Protein 1
Amino acid sequence: MSIVYFRVLRRFVAVFAAILFAQSAASDTQHGISMYGAPALPPDFVSLPYVRADAPKGGSITLGNTGGFNSLNPFVRKGTVPWQLRFFTHEALMGRSWDEPFTLYGVLAESIEVPEDRAWVEFTLRPEARFSDGTPVTVDDVIFSYELLGTEGHPRYLSLHNQIDSIVQTGPDRLRITFNTQNRELALLAGLRPILSKAQWAGKDFANAPLSDSPIGSGPYVVSDFEAGRFVTLSRNPNYWGADIPFRRGTNNFDTIKLDFYGDASVLFEAFKAGNISAVREFNAQKWDRQYDFPAVDRGDVVKSEIPHGKPSGMTGFVMNTRKAPFDDWRVREAMIQAFNFEYINDTLTGGAQPRITSYFSNSALAFEPGPAPTPVAQLLAPFAGDLIPGTLEGYSFPQTDGSLRNRKGIRKAMALLEEAGWVASDGVMRDENGTALTFAILLTQDSSENKAIADLYVSALARLGIEATIETTDSAQFVERTNAFDFDMTTFRRALSLSPGNEQRFYWGSEAAAQQGSRNLMGAASPAVDAMIDAMLTARSQQEFVHAVRALDRLLTAGRYVIPFWQYTTGRIAHDARMKFPDRLPIYGDGPNFMPEVWWYDPS
């Protein structure tokens, strides 16, 4: 597997380097579009490079989810939805290649046109495109979808909608979207919005649709059966319109994908061992080594596959809500980080096999460089120098403990920081100047056994500081509702990041999103410097300018001490039914819903 890893790494470096020095895309009609430079695949490409074009169709698989669901509409904020739905039932005008940092190829659109400044984008629809009910996908459907999602849809669609000046039909199968903001990424984002059927939703309450109203899509799968909170069955549409277009060839091969729901991860794992689930993703290296030795593995009925990748680590950990005290003080947040005994917790729970996340873009070429900010990055941050949190320009790194249980050094530093912030230990209790004790709750879902184990160890360490931290568990629906409303002190956090960060960064940690319920800015980051770096990313005219802006953003987020980071997931681990196969050629992005199950197939032999 190490040989495969280095092949993936070399391919990533080669593609990234090619894009780094490429010139802006031409303004004529194209089969695809890239953030910088031209798409890697030619107009006559047969299939995506990490797909087996002649993969056989057939077979059924069952995947497991924890928690439950009360909605089948993945495009609104209300309700808890099986996360897989929006990947398999609906399509956009364009689709991403997961072997290039940010490149799109035609799906519902057969071509795309942009000018040099990307002030507008024009799409030509495929005349053969159809919704699952057999009706054609029209320009009217596209325009309706952009307006509906931008006004009544999930908040993740709001940013693009606010940056659109107009959408007009320019031909029978053609439309132009004009933007009101200078932002190179908008042309690509416009191609990624899901397209809904106007006939289904016109005049209806889209945002509050009942469970029975599953949105009609044009994708390869349809919801064929479900029982609220228990299962959803997706069936491959035998009349799927796009089975032979280059972007889809060799993908979506299973006849049926059933999603079963379990109360927690432990019950799900037992169901997998019993053969009731076809595949599971394992994120704990120690468990992967020690608990996957059950009879089905010994017989060869279950295979353990490791899928390396070259994408950023993203951020996983406990996030602190800076909208409320005491986490509105960076010194308190740093104290929380110092008290977190990562080396001991990592060794206890994963055998020390997974390295710590060192920044939001660690494990990639976009990560900030250690030490003082180099000149191009420092120049970007200079206008905000007086307001930057210590460590931003000078360099900041998460503490490293000696691995012992006591973590004396970290506890001493945490104590000093708390005292500097106005907290004093009195009779074994940390109190402020008014005598109020420092207490907070860590919000977790009931089905998160690993996060519960981490929190238990962390709470014990905090008690040594005189801090009373409690663990509060709730079901998945309540967890979503509370995090959407920012009703927590500290909670679990996972933000996957790509090799092509863009407009979604506003939704993750932009100032406007900090006050927008349902946004992904759980920490409440509201920093003019962060906003400015996102703007610099989106207006960069070269890959080099773009990288400098991302590295500056990475510094701001890391030195902001918003999250207590856990470990990286540098390799995807999938245990699966031996009859489930995947191509030898792996994408740079590794595993994800666009890899398993999208490019896998079933081999009954």
Protein 2
Amino acid sequence: MNSVPAPKASDSLFKPLPKNFNFKKVSQAFSVVNNPRLTEIQNLGRKQCLSKSEWPLMKNINAWMITAETATFMKWGGLGMVASELPEAFNRCFAKDGDIVSVITPLYTGDTGKKKARLEENVYHGAEKKSATLQKLLTIKVPFYGIRNTLTKYNVNIYRGNIENVEYLFLQNERFFSINPHSENNPAQDGCYILNEFNINEVERFAFFSKAVYILVRTLFEKNPTALKAPNLLIANDWHSGALAGLTKYFSIAQQEAGLINDKLCSRLKNLPIVHLAHHLGYQGWDYYNTSKILNSLYETTANAVFRNAKAIKNSNARTGTTLIVYDCYNQASCNFHLADRVVTVSKNYMEEVSKELDFGFDFRDILKIRKDHRCFFGIVNGYDKKLITPNQKRIEAINGYFAPFHFKFYDENHLDAKLENKKEFIRLLSKIASDPDFKQKVIPLVDTYRFNDLSTKIKNIEHTPIICATSRLVEQKGYDIAAQAIINLFNRFGALKNIEMPIFVLGGAGDSKHFECLTDLKDRVMEKNSKCGERIFVFRGYQDDFAYTIQMASDFYMMPSRFEPCGLTQMEAMAKGALPVAMSTGGLVDTIENGVDGFRTEVFFSTRKRRVYGNNLTAKRLKNNTNAYAETLCKALETFYCHFDKIHQMTENAMRKDFSWDVEGGSIYKYRQLFKTGHI
């Protein structure tokens, strides 16, 4: 590690920002400047949001996907799935034509207790039980603020490996990419989001990651010292790499003005196109206490010059007058939302929601509306490789071995009778878990079950007994409280009927105890009013993969009363296994579920401010809120099951035939290729 010299420029602008400058309300006044480069920085936010930059002609795509997560080596959510599957599908389809996507990700090492990764000689063992043989390519030096609050050059080793026809570049630095937890780490923070042993939090970690990627690109542009080919496009996968556009554009221009890089290098860096891929806009990378430290780390001794000229496009939100902070807090997503050449989100309907509603777009609603109107903001539905989620013979055999002596059968859309047999077997499995504590401890030891009942002798006609499940995370987003009220309404409506088999509900997942208590309260309330209905409610907390897979295989319906769902993957998993989604009409659920054809969706959807977001006004006036809308849709699904089972059978076939794979003809990967080539879809 070496100290970084100050620039030779004499202008007083070229100095770091004062420590904790944001602790007082920042009043940003942008003055008229005569310096053309500082003027360029001031006008850049407007230029990018109005799509005034010319998209470069590309004979071939050599794109880098910059991502903190991958499903291959470090996964926490859907963005990790995208980071693995999009490049794999893209290269499978287009590498023969010379178009490729590579993945750039940190080389994490350490053990959180849930996630473990290590590098042994030249073999990297990731946190997702996959390994890769690596080749060390080079070492770069990345300037960043260290322990003594001074700019220090940290060594970052660059390794290369190949998995599933994708080249991975791993960036290694123990201080920033260790996942060994700090003694004060919040237990809810895990994986790559941990506060680590060196007191590095997630925002500082990924700011360093963005800076390291920038230094690597600049190194390749300057002298290309290895066989590694420089990229001609960067794909920033969510807020984690949100600082990239500020580095390639602002920082390069400021360094050029300070005499630290030449004109040719500056031009190449600032014109490198960046596509920012936004997942859920509620996650943006906020860090109030480290605001000045991170900005000084990113922009070094040009930080003051950049910040004083980082003017955002004029909009109605006074909190976003500058592109680098929101109000008085560092926000890592902000820079790319303002400065990326294109912004893409994970479904077309979510694009509409975030550009219309504050509940979804937050501080960036107005900016995204401007981008949408000027054709530099798009919605492309996430793919999901069908072979990973359809019933799989080998997987079912493994499940049978795990849950022995139970025997589940393989089925597909042409053999739904086997799914009926799986329903029978699943009732037996639930009853065994309920009646045999030793068996429960053996098969799902880390899953908390609440008052499971033995139904083995109580279900008279399984064919006409609907099984309804939800196996999502126990978080507010998933709307378990809405589900609970809908179930109570359902039992109030149907519970006294003698001629129907009441539904069985299996609800739960890993997550917050508050939301688990919502489910246990549901069980208790229904048991008090109607024990025959209540005993058919199974609630649990925790996650076991084989158990979750079996639940979906046996279920007729999958509940998704989500408060928001940018794209959603669980509805795709459920449909592939013949569990019809009963969903809220939000985000990607609108784009992936055809109401009455392969699932059920609410007629209307409201924001938390009770504004109608989806549906017509007359229906909105009648239903008034999401709870009523969802309860009505659940009742409609059950009425269809009881009265028109032939339609349910056809819908199940439709759902299982649906293919969300990235590379289906005309699928998402083709839209991405068109975007990368032309800047438009």
Protein 3
Amino acid sequence: MSAGPGPERCARIGRGGERGARVLLGAVLLGALGAAAAIAAGCGSPGGADGRRVVVLGIDGMDPGYLQRFIDEGRLPNFARLAAEGSFGPLETSMPPLSPVAWSNFITGMDPGGHGVFDFLHREAATIEMYPPTYRVLPAGRSLRFGSWELPLTGGGVELVRRGRALWEILEDAGVPTTIYRMPMNFPPVEAGGRSLSGMGTPDVLGTSGTYALYADYPPANGDDLSGGAFHLVEVVDHRVRARLVGPPNTFRRLPSESGTARLTGAEPDFENPDLEIDFEVLLDPDAPAAKIVIQDAEVILNEGEWSDWVGVEFEAVPFVAGVGAAARFYLQEVRPDFRLYVTPLQIDPANPALPLSTPADWAGELSAALDRFYTQELPEDTDAYLDGVFTAREFWEQARFVYGEQRRALDQALAAFDEGFLFFYFSSVDQGSHMLHHFADRDHPAFVEDDLLAAGLATLYEEMDEALGRVVEWIGDDERTTLIVMSDHGFTPWYWTVQLNSWLVEQGYVTLRDPSRQGESPLFLNVDWSRTTAYALGLQGLYVNLAGREEQGIVAPGAEYEALLDRLEADLLAMVDERNGRSPVSLVYRSREALRGPYADEAPDIVVGYSRGYRSSWESPLGEFPREVFGDNDEAWSGDHQNDYRLVPGVLLTNREIALAEPALYDVTVAVLDEFGLPPGPGMIGEDAIGH
């Protein structure tokens, strides 16, 4: 995460965690050793656009119902004008309607069977091990060891997991210049000759979707076990706080583990990679509510409640050889009587990227020079800090405003630098605001809170998109050669009630637990008796058969037994009733292998569950947990969602041309962009031209 577990609350769903940090840093350090060779020359093929231009504004999560409502209320004059002079309608999303899947549909012109992205979480069939569908870290090859140091000499790096050729690759091959700003599911960015900046799927320096840090002299109100961050207990001594900024494990060092069993048994010692760290100090003003932060060469003075600008730091991995650049912002929440300092997730620094952020490789640095540093992690609005109680709702709103400001300034820069060809520009704020602000405007929501400012927050986000659209329309002027497309990947519904799908599978006899008395105590399917389990849920909307020959402990025979099980699952899912209110939580059972086209359909979940309006999966079930209650009320701030039957959450499509299809889908827009430049659909594309001339 759209979206996305942050991306669509990735602290819980799809976060790489310690394993992600360890394997990613190896790629970071290999990149640092050979950074000079990574800088590419040039920025694309000579023009083949013949003066034609296509501009796509990709607004994650914009909903056609909300858009029409705000147009009718007179809030969105630029959207109203574009709809009247051009076309406006719903845009069919993917199934499941999750941002990684939906944007991959648009990027490739295929469905998930063609690009192989099915959810925020995938699984290895043999081991049921979960992994995100974003990037893969390649193993190191030969290495040089001396003492506690181990320096990789070959191998390593990261590669994109999504399959299929990207739209802009095809355009560049035809000589059409392309500029792609923060395209989701494009990390590391595709080498296509044009300019591109990675978006959703880009990790922080720790290898996660974004892990913030909280430094305080007392634990947070809900304890120090934060789902999306790290808590550091500090002391104020003589108006001074000494602390350490913690980076990823240093895979260049191997030190004996103090927590291992070798010390007790006398066996060969266990080894671990020590964390990279940077010492810093916070000097508190003895009288005023202010402080000075001193870290490496930077000194930052903040008042209580104030944010710093971006601060660049470098972790020393190998003295005089390799370091890891990062960037962070500091927020001085409180000086006294208690001390609290929030630090953003450590970003891959666009001014000094340790991993590939852009093509050409130096474009991220050029953007940083023009715009100052900026968030590079996938979805930078810190929903986790809000959900963990580290941010108040107003603090979340303030931080999200800063994110939008960065993206809005970047739009001006992109327009100023764009001449001809294809420009894609992405905004995340509507999606993240729709997730986190719904309960302020909906008195029926279990988490409803009275706050007039935040109740108007969603309308404010749409108004900001209207202003951005107006800027693009002004830039286009009366140039009839320019095609303008505004699109979103999906829409939104309220999230009132949770479904523990794995718990329902236990209740219905599809899953058997080894020890039923310990239901709800073990994550990651650890309490499952696979010898008596026929189906299980994994990811936000996926349901898999425990298939013999595919799963390591599969018991369902392929063929007639498999098909009969799918028939029974479909009937039972559609018959599911929430007895608390008499509602049907599931409105669609989507059989992937029957519906998908493309060579990777067999890797998809056997069934994708389409939830009814108001329902979605819990946070626990996608990770193999089995709480005792199947249904519950959603009393969290994450109050809007799109984990539904795809027919309930279409995206939007607006254009200054005529929409040529009665029911356009995401992959139809891909074909339409190619057609604007006189190009046919690429191999494997399944769409039609959605836009007339």
